[in-house]
Amino acid sequence: MKILVLNSYTKAQKYKPDNLIRREDLSPPEHLDRRIRELSGYNAEGSYHESRDYSARAGEMFTSQFHEQVRKGLTQVRNHEEYGETTLDLYFPSNSNFCRVDRREPLVNEKHRIVPFDIEPLHDHDWEGVDYGETVLLERVEALMEGYDLVFSLLAKYDVLELKGMFERHREVPLVLLAPPGWRISIPESLPNTHLVCTGAKDLVGTLEGATNYNLRGAVFRKLCEVACREGFHVFEEVRQNPQLIRDIVLEQR
């Protein structure tokens, strides 16, 4: 089974230099190119020095409690003897691919090198009146998903809103959105392969080991991986068949 995990960026990053990428650096493209090279360790003359290099793989750049939980889950599965027939890939499907060192436009994979940045995502009220129709980003994410058997969305709310169309279409691959009830997101009943699994702090914090208000979706994913490693990767198939089992699995109540 091929499993895709979709994740979001956070401001908590491995490196926090004073000259990280900010919104005013995004244009013109030539200026952004210079800024990325600068943060990758190169001076104006093209000379590289490791002490000036703040780039890192995307899977290692983000240091929030949430991302730490996700990494623990990925590491457990990838170190397991059953790994190979079942695989996990981590992507960051955001329009913020401006931070890629190679300056390519496709979606950011955990192995792609990026530089640190501080650009605020849109807030809820900023999305009022926004057209959620076709976008290049949405098309790329949906094309990526077609190559997998199961997709987990651990996306933050601002990315869920940006990719809203992804959760409103018929598809063959099961898509599981982990989200707290407070997001007030609903999935049309007519979409049998798109599933909302509520991860509420009221039920899980204090019950699920390691879960806090700040890492809840990551803690649920980490625990799911832990159970799969202990009981066998057939757990992922159980989830593919019935995503609502996730809560019972992580609380070990099934």
Please bin the fraction of helical residues: 25-40%
Distance between the termini: 23 Å
**Helix count, DSSP H or I runs of 4 or more residues:** 9
Question: Could you give the order of the helices and strands?
Answer: EHEEEHHEEEHEHEEHHHH
Low-confidence stretches: none
With strands numbered from the N-terminus, the spatial order across the biggest sheet is: 6-5-1-8-9-10
**Shape type:** globular
* Strand runs, count: 10
Radius of gyration: 19 Å
Mean pLDDT: 92
Q: What's the story with the biggest beta sheet?
A: 6 strands, mixed
Q: What percent of residues are in strands?
A: 15-25%
Summing up helix and strand content along with how strands pair, one would put the structural category as: alpha/beta
Describe the overall structure.
31% of the residues lie in helices and 16% in strands. The strands form three sheets. The chain has a six-stranded mixed beta sheet, covered by helices on one side. By secondary structure, the protein is of the alpha/beta class. The longest helix has 16 residues. The protein contains nine helices and ten strands. The two termini are 23 Å apart. α3 runs parallel beside α7.
Name the descriptors:
single chain, 254 residues, alpha/beta, 6-stranded mixed β-sheet, 31% helix, 16% strand
